[in-house]
Amino acid sequence: MNHHVESVFSRRTLSDIYQEIRDVYLANAMPWVVGYSGGKDSTASLQLIWYALRDVPRAQLRKPIYVIATDTLVETPLIVDHVNHNLGNIGRFAREEGLPMTVHRLTPKVTDTFWVNLIGRGYPAPHSRFRWCTERMKIRPADEFIVSKVAQHGEVVLILGQRRSESQARAQVMREYRITGSRLSRHSTLPKAYVYTPLEDFTTDDVWTYLLTVPSPWHGNNRDLAALYRSAQSGECPLIVDLSTPSCGNSRFGCWVCTVVERDRSMEALIDNGEEWMIPLLEFRDFLAATQDPERRREVRDYRRRDGLVHFRKVQSGEDLIRGPYRLEFRKELLTRLLQVQEQVRREKPELNLELISPAELYEIRRLWRIEAHDWEDSVPAIYRAVTGRDLPWPQEDGAVFGPAERALLAQICAEEDVPVELLIALIEQQRDQHLPTSRSRIVERIDEVLRREWRSEQEVLAAVEHYFPFVEGKVSATKGV
Ligand code: SF4
Fold it and tell me: What is the residue with the minimal CA distance to atom 7 of ligand 1?
């Protein structure tokens, strides 16, 4: 692809490049934050830094170097092992060599993880038009780390493995933020953070040439890395710092659940290479991807958005409601299937000790279902027990006072009175949820908010839309005047 791009080594020697890195390091007191993804580019830039600084007298190596790796908690299992193994070695050999380098594995907060959003809140599987995952699982953890180091040191330099030859767009962004006359660029969103890209003039071939001719200083295995690329037939998901970074969806060592790509060729290639235990993972991913089909979307997603309102658009065949989150019933199915996959892989590959979803995520999903989806049945512990035959130390819930018996009773009364039972439940929860409001107007406001949500069935809403807005186009809240 980049055959027309000239090799960096036709213009510069490796010692020139090392010298530049030393100059940038010694030029000021700003600590370095190095993004490490385990992929070829970040491996190459960390390796360059290592060799460059190894020759500096230790007394001059005063600035800390924080090596950070973001783990989305849904990374392809083989990649996680590769990254964790290397991180361990980087920390250990850096200490042995007296380099001021420490490693930090960053993960999303429990409220930002893939499963909590997908299963807990019902966010639909990520799509190129709604890629909610990258921001929550990659950008936020890295940004928070960088901001904390800015707070501690005043300013920081972020080292990224970006290369101009990746794409025109990449080259353009790199030009745009460059500080004139400097090797540093401004960070696109974080003040007091600068970016240094030691690899910017490398071609893909240069990166491989460097990795395969110069041994890894932390005793990593660059040949294994090359083999991993070959078997995964893909690029990498670099450290993402903002949404201008190329999508991890198209060339990646990305998440095993990723539905931004139409087919997960990297997981398919790994399976073809003998990693057959991954088949249930691939099937789960495909099951998730199928929820994006228009037909299936209607089945699995609510006709109301998360705010409880209905939005619709005019399409050729009439109106189409813009779908909201996954229905609770479907989230239950997702959780069941996910736990089944986890059990199956644990049986087949016990040595991997695979954890696809953590107890902390299960607790949070349970909490969200109870509060937002009014799951009076308390389904999460029941599903967990049904699939695994085990229990978890589920946290005691102070607020949970109603159960299936109360729901059944309420349903009976509501049927007699012809009131939607979900409306009653929402009103009850709304009043229980607020922390003892003092003003009457506040209570009325909250009741009003519940009443404003859509409580009619999908068919009733569609009929009303057809009746009142036969010519409307675009997105309208159907509750207004329907
Ligand atoms: S690899 Fe896919 S699922 Fe993972 S963060 Fe990137 S776009 Fe989202």
Answer: 249
- Looking at beta carbons, which pairs linking 178-185 to residues 24 or more positions away fall under 8 Å? 183/20, 183/24, 184/24, 184/157
Q: Rounded to whole angstroms, how far apart are CA atoms 365 and 359?
A: 10
Residue from 131, 140, 263 to probe ligand 1 pocket by mutation (most atoms less than 8 Å from CB): 131
Gap from CA of 133 to ligand 1 centroid (Å): 6
CA nearest ligand 1 atom 4, residue: 255
The model's pLDDT over 131-162, given as tens digits with 9 standing for 90+, comes to 899 999 999 999 999 999 999 999 999 999 98
Question: How many other C-beta atoms are found inside a 10 Å radius of the C-beta of residue 469?
Answer: 17
Spatial distance between the Cα atoms of 18 and 37, rounded to a whole number of angstroms = 22
Please state the atom number of ligand 1 nearest to the C-alpha of residue 114.
3
Query: Domain-by-domain residue ranges, the chain?
Result: 8-232
Give the CATH number of domain 8-232; options: 3.40.50.620, 3.20.20.70, 3.30.420.10, 3.30.420.40. 3.40.50.620
Whole-model pTM: value is 0.85
